[in-house]
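Holo prediction — adenosine-5'-triphosphate.
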Amino acid sequence: MDSRDPDLFPSSYATNYEDISHRGRTGIMGDSHLPILNEEEYTDDAFIVEEKPVSSIYKANVTTAGSSHSLPTTTSSASFTDQSNHRSSALKQNERQLSILDPLSDRVSTILVWKNLTVHARPSKREEFFQRVKSYKKYIPKRKCLLSNTSGAITGGLWAVMGPSGSGKSTLLNTLACRLDVNTIVEGEMRLNGAPYDNAELKRIAGYVMQDDLLNGCLTVQETLMYAAQLRLPRAFTEEQRKERVADAMADLGLSHVHNVIVGTPLKKGISGGERKRVCVGMQLLNRPQLLFLDEPTSGLDSVTALDLLRTFHALAHGKSQEKAVTIVCSIHQPQAKIFNLFDSLILLKGGGIIYQGPRKQAMEAYRIAGFPCPVTTNPADHLLDVITPPRRNPVIDTPAISLEQQAAIDEAILKAQPSFDVDLNMGVNKRLAQMANIPPSPPWHKQVRILLHRTFKEQLRQSRIIITSLVQTVVIAILIGTVYLKIGNSQKSTTFREPSLFFCAVNQGVFGALMVINSFPVERALTLRERASGTYFASAYFIAKIVAETLIQIPVPIIFSSIVYFLIGYQATVGKFFIFALFMLLCSLAATSLALMVSAICKTTDMSVTVLPLALEITRLFGGFFLAPSRLPTYFVWLDAISYIKYTFVGTALNELSGLKLTCTAEQVAQFACITTGEYYINERGYGYISIGGCIGVLLGYIIFCRIVAFLGVRFLKN
Ligand SMILES: Nc1ncnc2c1ncn2[C@@H]1O[C@H](COP(=O)(O)OP(=O)(O)OP(=O)(O)O)[C@@H](O)[C@H]1O
Ligand SMILES: [Mg+2]
């Protein structure tokens, strides 16, 4: 298409859009009334403010000299191949070693290259299955293209990924960081220092701050960072060094004044949104990653804080405070000019394709060549996006709109104005050995369990309101049940109360705990997935810590319940029988929480979990052995009966209470032959004797272990 076609470019766009190729390629400046910003006018000298003092997070080995942005931009990071090698070979050796923008520099430890990368989103497996059933052979899977055939390389320095909303910034970051949704298909090649990589490798050397921050709301800022330091810093670190690192991180990110404030939950206000973001960044910076992905770290921050944060990133990316610089890739929306000028390189995305990539300074040049020089009064970042984003027609103020063809021609012109680009997948292969050798081991499994146990206890105790409420509830319900069946005694009449009261106790303990877990676990699970994705701990360490802490916190509830109920109702007054009753209440309560844990680990979301759990609970109640005595159970329901933990609790407590029970009769009852003197009669009559008390305890323990193993597998393998 001829970009000079007057039909394609309305007169109102003449300033920038007219005669792209002619004006662009001849380098003619814009209209005289609209001054054009010269590259040098908005670059470093004009905007880059004094470097922040050496980031204390990284203050270790300050050896390098010179600021790389003052070095000539000798290497185009857009032309990463032989071509760049030729060009950079013109540099003096030491200059090259110092330049963070030179991929060959020793200070750049990580080079990420991707070639012909295409990402598609497919419907979820369930949706695809129904569609396939509905349209049988005619079904063609619908795939949405999120990234289309992109190639590129991220070398050293601070990189910005820019583009309109929905252009694929997060998708590109997630793809490169191996954090994509399971319903996506990735084609193409990605290499880290010349070798294919996966999430396991990446999480040892890289950090990722996602667009939406997920944190534990009950902990304070300092505690959050301290737990992250304990879990993520190498095992050789002492407690003092960890504390120091946390204090430095808080100072660097301006969080010291809120160190004692809780992060906050939707119900309990904590730190501000910007501070939350900075806590997330701090957690990732603690262990000094070699590569850092940040998805919109500045959204929600005021301009001063955003600039401050970006200056910290700039200092880190330029290795001001350590020998090796961190490569930072940061997606960002409409940065102010001062922030924009801190970036070394740029990837500009539109509709899942890369419109520009390379040094920031050369982006303006490419636009100028394409015929879109940046007006002096315009923020260069805004200009980059304005040109590639077609304005929408506004019927009220009659703004002009440009057609799709016109916009395509503009995009094409910008692409053509860039140097040719050929990606070398082997780039950085010589850095690989050194990179992998530098990774110190993280804390061992048992230490992770200890730290997580401590953290879970702290979280639970911070939610003391819930614990106190559940204790009060237990006492109230125990007194109610106890007084309803108060002192049932040993008469013949007592038999009509004994079994219902035992069943009611089993149902109460078998439902209560489940409801608490089902609401809290799916939320916690999302945070855990995020923490595990960044290599903070093993899934097994988390799970063991969780169930140990929760079991210990759960134990008092059934004990208190049993102590009140047992004596108010007046079951057999034997120490051994009381302890067996209390043990059954405890096992029933643990079985309930284990079932809820399993359901929510498999269902993943709260919505789905609260839909499925009531059905499971209803079945366990219906087949609880009371409504349908084991002796009268139809054979086709045996399997449902077998999975009801309430049944084993009820039968176990019934065996405990009825065995050895002596019942009294009135003379009248004896005369009428309606006198039953032992509890064993009822055991035989109802068929409870098919299993022993020990058998019931064994089945309940097996049930708890089975549910927890399935829950663990769900937590370990079902990821979103
Ligand atoms: N898993 C997915 N399934 C379907 N569509 C998706 C998926 N992930 C992303 N998309 C779509 O891909 C496009 C790009 O999404 P992405 O989140 O990468 O945009 P973005 O540039 O980060 O936008 P923003 O600036 O608003 O964060 C959007 O249209 C989004 O709806
Ligand atoms: Mg995004």
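READOUT: The beta strands are 112-121, 144-154, 158-162, 184-192, 206-209, 291-295, 327-331, 345-350, 353-359.
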